[in-house]
Amino acid sequence: MRLNFSLISVASAMVIGAAGTAVSADVKLPSTIAWSAYNTGTTGYNQSVAVGKALKDKYGVSLRVVPGKNDISRMAPLRTNKVQFVANGGGTFFASEGTYNFAAKSWGPQKIRLLMTATSKANISLGTAADANIKTMADLKGKRVGIVRGSPALTIGAKAALAFANLKFEDVEIVEFGGYGAMWKGMVSGQVDAAVASTVSGPTKKLQASPRGIFWPDWPHSDTAGWARVKEVAPYFVKHTATLGTGLSKDNPQEAGSYPYPILITREDQDSDLVYSMTKALHTEYPNYKDALPAMEGWSLENQTFKWAVPYHEAAVKYWSEVGVWTADMNTHNEALIERQNVLAAAWATMASMELADDKFKDKWMEVRAAALKAKGMTP
What we know:
This protein is an alpha/beta fold. The protein has 2 domains: 1-119 and 260-380, Periplasmic binding protein-like II (D-Maltodextrin-Binding Protein, domain 2); 124-258, D-Maltodextrin-Binding Protein, domain 2 (3-Layer(aba) Sandwich), CATH 3.40.190. The protein has 12 helices and 12 strands. Strands 2-1-3-12-4 form a 5-stranded mixed sheet, sandwiched between helices. It has a 3-stranded antiparallel sheet with strand order 8-5-9, with helices on both faces. A two-stranded parallel sheet has the order 6-7. The longest helix has 22 residues, at 328-349. The two termini are 27 Å apart.
């Protein structure tokens, strides 16, 4: 099943803004750009490097890719403008919503914006060590499951996977790691039996090559109750069948779930000319980086997800409108997401005067957040 909520139709789309009348502006990028990504060796990092080569070859731009071991370490340099973009994952959703690690006093809901997303034939799923004999998701009961400190995307991904089998953290042995790379090293060394990853992530290949081996149990799409539980934990997950990944192929697919990854994001207040130029460069240069890695197909126009859970930057909207793929329906969806962020920001502002201990602060924020969203008819 295709991940895209609403796939564009260039021939028939009702486009907004300057579509059909404006001519795309030239790409104007600074000589050096920085963005953060997952650890070295991950598919997010490797895809970023491939994009960087294309930008260097075409525009003479140096893209500095800064690896981050968790969501906080990837987002922090964006907030301080040490990087202009982040090639992020599911943590994008939590940052926008101000939940989990982003419910802390030092964070709160972030006004972040999308430029592009990437949806390939890979899944974001729970990989297991073959020697752990986990054939179905129900077999996870009593097994050791890895999570990463400071990475709600990986932690909630694990919760969602367990929820599919009607399991919770108390039904397994949770092993916490300081980073994604460390967690997957733990898979190879025998510290854990299961962990979340993209099926094309580099560390999964090391597990496959080890004596333990790798296996990706299915989340059968026919299990409606299981998928209802997944959606309760992680509403951004969508049914998806992977034919790309470590140990996977067209003849050996995995029926599970995914979401766009990487998701290229920036701040709401990022320079519009920079955002426009980066969006255009990534789109128009796709033929020059698409063959760098199998998962690069996710960056193609046909694999874009224009209606996700976080809004697009206005400069990205301008570009996608000019090339005729941004529809009125997409714009309505985007405006609703921006309004949601505004409601969350206003609610967060009321927390400034509350002198509470960290845990009590988070609890109070989640109450205030839910009340603010419900008052506007929005789902908390």
